[in-house]
Amino acid sequence: MTFSSTSTPVSASHPQVQDRVTRRLSEFPWWVLVILLAAVLLVYNFATNATYQDIIIYLSTGVRLTIIVTLVSFSIAMLLGLLTAFGQMSKNLLIRNIAMLYVQIIRGVPALVLIFYTALVVVPAGIGVINAVGDWMVGLGWLPVENSLSTLQNRNVSFVVRGIIALAINYGAFSSEIFRAGIQSIEKGQIEAAKALGLNWFRTMRLVILPQAFRRILPPLGNDFIAMLKESSLVSVLGVEEITQMGKKYVGASFLYPETYNTVAFLYLSMTLVLSMGVKYMEKRLKTGDERE
Fold it and tell me: Over 70: is that where the pLDDT of 291 sits?
């Protein structure tokens, strides 16, 4: 009597299992473990070391200012970028060339140079223009001699505001390219359909084009927000007391270089990692939504 076996030999499945394990090991984000290990060590120091606790408390005001500067600058940059994108797509030759000139100049100037130029040249020049407008309105009798426009001085504009303006101008140029690409990615047939329904340009953009474009450009705008959060450290050159500047001040008083800059780096890294995970989650949700449609 003979018996036949239909079961697959165990040895035959070994290559598949090994390939699966090898693939998973190669795809595993080992770099996350390194970051987590460093984070655990720093958190342990924060919990047990009084020096790190003092540094965290000292830098807390800088964290708040960093967040405020980033949020305000990014909001202004988005508005400026959207207007510039419309300008680049305008049929008016003058408006189109002004928008393109702005984008090309900003993209060709380093961010640090732009911050100095905006704070020390652009803002004072703007204040001069505001003073001239105020004096002109006084001459016409529209304003009293003592008015806020004519009496505005450079010292009335803080360096925090100047830093915000500089960051907004810088990222407004880069975000305009994102907006322009997102708007132009929408099929022209939808614009023609909106016109057929009697919608004007403004209503077409507001109701048809921009909602779809925003859905497509949210991930790159999220990346821009993360980049702005990191580059907000550059306004420390103006004396703005954000995280980096507060770290420099603490080092100047304590000479605790490793402890202070470990904490500064950890604060930036923790914020950017959280935002990066948010952007990736948003990309995944948007991709899932597109597949369902």
Answer: no
Give the predicted TM-score (pTM) of the model: 0.84
The alpha carbon of residue 283 and the mean position of all alpha carbons in its chain are separated, in whole angstroms, by: 16
Which SS3 state, helix, strand or coil, does residue 7 take?
coil
How many Cα atoms occupy the beta-carbon half-sphere of 80 within 13 Å? 20
pLDDT digits 0-9 by tens, 231-246: 999 999 999 999 999 9
SS3 255: coil
